[in-house]
Amino acid sequence: MRALTFNPGLSLHVVPDPVPTPSEALVQVAAFSLNFGEIAYTSANVRAGHVPGWDAAGVVVQAAADGSGPAAGTRVVTFGWSGAWAEMRAVDTAELAVVPAAVDLGPASALPVAGVTALQALRRLGPVAGRRALVTGASGGVGRFAVQLAARAGARVVASAGSPARAQGLRELGATEIVIGPENLEGRLYGVLDNVGGHQLAQAFYRLEDDGVVMAIGRAAREATVIDFELAGTRSARGRIENFNVTTPFGADLAHLIGLLAAGELDAQIGWRGPWNRAMEAADALLARRVAGKAVLDV
Asked: Are 295 and 272 in contact (CB under 8 A)?
């Protein structure tokens, strides 16, 4: 089969077909999405023939041998820490969800890491109805899902973006306030979904109300976070930062997000879409912050 590999750039190569374990379904990939983390933090020592990629959607061509999961011919969205950027993918049946016929597999492929991360991080914040919640990096993949899901949960969402151009469309997704960097934010916050790290995480922490929480999700700024815990008058009495990591299996959360997508209650926010032979173009655009939301490649 053909697959995208780093060799050393991102290009198509022929690699062996995946061999599924008894609990894995074999999926013919129709589309996959790119995530900032899987490109920006790629190891320089990737082994030859390794197929990267976390998110993919397609059609089951071979059901799992143990009887779990959907039958052959079922449209699915899938997650795994590798193997998505290929014509075929073997995926554990606990890490997939069925995609209704009316849902485009391209937007479905955008859901796994970005959508589930936003969903789980928001869940960790606890009840947010009527409370003020900040999303940093709101124009990115995780950020645009987080704005929508927090608004659906009743939060008063403050969306922080890097520029007015990057902030376009965030009010339509449910943001009640938009700021260009949290240093320009006034007032206190109950919760923060931080996708940026660095000084933005510090600025968000200083604005927490008592018992407020920062979910440290991502490090898009690629800079260290320095916090002055003794800075007078700017921090809450008991605010905290929690290191957030998404947890598996994804199946149930993917099914929930697919349901919202199918009902028109969630927008996958595809900012770039094209054939997979343009993968380097998509990756460069994502790293350069020229993509609002998700980049999707059709196989």
From this structure: yes
